Amino acid sequence: MNTTTNNGAKQYFEQIYQRPVILEAKKLTQVFQHGKTQRTVLNQLDLKIHKREFICVIGPSGCGKSTFSRVVAGLDPYHSGELLVDGQPIIGPSPERGMVFQGYTLFPWKTVKENVMFGPLMKGASHASAEAHAREWIDIIGLEKYENQYPHQLSGGMKQRVAIARALVNQPKILLMDEPFGALDPHTRQKMQKHLMDLWQNIDITIIFVTHDMDEAILLADRIVALKANPGEIKEIIEVDLPRPRNAELMLTPEFKRLREHVDALVHAQEEELDPALEELPKIPRMTQVSTHK
To answer: Taking the model in full, what pTM does it have?
Structure first.
């Protein structure tokens, strides 16, 4: 999976677009009711995501990124339009769409192994089968030494690895990730990004990844869906024409910086439109007498 030249990038995206469409939004609209008023959060989104794509969704606060991931997961009903997986409408949650949140959503009273076993058991697998599948995924995420530990005994990065395993053990077609690394320190976040890319390149999965972090979006994505807010609409879909496999050193290249400037202009230009206070912050008055002398 290499895209080392512009021609290579063109061929890479041609191959992507030849794959079947796994998720399609047609005029997707989501409206929230606030008393007697309505707020349109997503406004007639049209989007096709192809099998095994890595899509990042980015945009200013309030643009509907998390709302989009929740309606795709089937956690929230949408107001109008169509939302299809393999041509079939989404009408609620399904094991074919796994979800990983920013917050740690593991069951605190269950061990690592028991957390990962939960999905297969709910689908009717025997205890032995669920345990075997759980152990397989625990090995894949590198936590076999911790399978009998409880969530409070794990670091933040470990907890998110367990959450990813718990989602993937159900063999979903689509993995939805809503700011999954947002609470991690920079070093752990970088390691988790690499781990996720390794997983994606070695299993049959389509990933939709919501993030505020522009560098993260460029590093991970095949395409970036940039949303605008009020109402949430697709402002631009950006093809990330950078070579794979990717690592942190890529961020130092002119090509990465070029993409970052473009994404930054898309996202932050509207943030200032939405919040004029960002354009010029007030000067803070001196509230106490501050002395430089001891």
So the answer is: 0.88
